[in-house]
Specification:
115 residues, alpha+beta, Alpha-Beta Plaits, four-stranded antiparallel beta sheet, 8 strands, 30% strand
Length: 115
């Protein structure tokens, strides 16, 4: 079963191909991705590598965690699942379709005077 790894402290010039080539030294790389800012397109300094097996993932952690890639010491660990994103915020709306605290008038903003 494939195992996903977190790779942190990446140099801005590290590419997905760099991750793939390096991690192939220890086994089958199912996928590799460098996370980028959606507006600027610049690397956020971390990525994920999915290894083919649990053993290959453990070998990759042993070999690459604390190692150097493009002049920076990288961090490699098991990726943690994303927290459940459902059921949280409602986009600023409160039940009943109103914004804010439900008070009308009064000139208050968040319980404090605006001026």
């Amino acid at each position: 079963m494939a195992k996903n790894l977190y790779v942190g402290n990446l140099s801005p010039e590290v590419t997905q191909d760099d991750l793939t080539v390096n991690f192939k030294e220890v086994g089958d790389v199912v996928s590799a991705v460098v996370i980028k800012d959606k507006f600027s397109g610049e690397s956020k300094g971390f990525g994920f590598v999915e290894m083919g097996t649990e053993k290959e993932a453990q070998d990759a952690i042993q070999k690459f965690n604390g190692g150097e890639l493009c002049g920076k010491k990288i961090v490699v660990s098991e990726a943690r699942p994303r927290p459940d994103q459902r059921g949280g915020r409602t986009g600023g709306r409160r039940p009943g379709g109103r914004f804010g605290g439900g008070r009308s008038g009064g000139g208050s903003f968040g319980g404090r005077s605006r001026y």
